[in-house]
Amino acid sequence: MDRGGLVIKPHHLLDIFKLYGKGVEKFVPDERYNHDFYRVGNRVIENRVRAVEFTCGNDDICRPCVCLKQGVCGDRFVYRGVEHNKNSYNEELDRRLIDRLGLEADREYEFTDIIDLLNGNLSLDLIGFVWSDKSCEENESRYEDTRRGIEKYLLRHGG
Ligand code: SF4
After folding, report:
1. Measured in angstroms, how far is the CA atom of residue 35 from the centroid of ligand 1?
2. Contacts of 81 (CB under 8 A, 6+ apart)
3. Where are the extended beta strands (E) located within 11-155?
């Protein structure tokens, strides 16, 4: 089994566990963006990642994405009537996660150590700090789904 390394934005990793906790058992390709979320997501939930490096820049998910231009995400989105630049929005999420979890960018970690770290440190307080523009209800359901996803992963693959 291929269990190589992975470069990922920390919020992308939490998104994978959130969707897994919500009931996704197999990620499928996204035809609009053509990114590799499905490929990376399936590696994560099938325990096919040995080592992981975190980044606030583009990651293994972004590389084939139609929005990635000269290494920068050019996507924009509207939330509560305000248009956001996804690159700076995501960089802020990832910086907060890296700081709060005591991680270092561009350093290799054993994936099992990261699972332990997330399992021990995931809290509603952390989610509310990182996604500070979201409502309490949105953050509560993000927290519960992500927590469920990590527990499901641990049940399936062991701690
Ligand atoms: S380039 Fe932007 S839209 Fe594409 S996967 Fe990365 S963050 Fe998402």
Report:
1. 7
2. none
3. 51-54, 68-69, 72-73, 76-79, 82-85, 108-110
- In this structure, which amino acid lies at residue 149? G
Q: What is the CA(55)–ligand 1 centre distance, in A?
A: 13
Element spanning 97, H or E: helix 86-100
CA-nearest residue for atom 2, ligand 1, is 73
Q: Give the helix ranges, DSSP H, for 2-77.
A: 10-22, 37-45
4: exposed, middle or buried (C-beta count within 10 Å: 0-12, 13-18, 19+)?
exposed
Q: How many domains does the chain have?
A: 1
Full residue range of the structural domain in which residue 123 is found = 5-157
CA dist 103 and 8 (Å) reads 13
pLDDT in tens, 40-97: 999 999 999 999 999 999 999 999 999 999 999 999 999 989 999 999 999 999 999 9
Atom from ligand 1 closest to the CA of residue 65: 4
String of b and e for 62-85 (b: at least 16 CB within 10 Å)? Answer: beebebbeeeebebeeeeeeeeee
| Burial (0-12, 13-18, 19+ Cβ within 10 Å), 137 | exposed
Dihedral sign from CA coordinates of 78, 80, 85, 90: negative
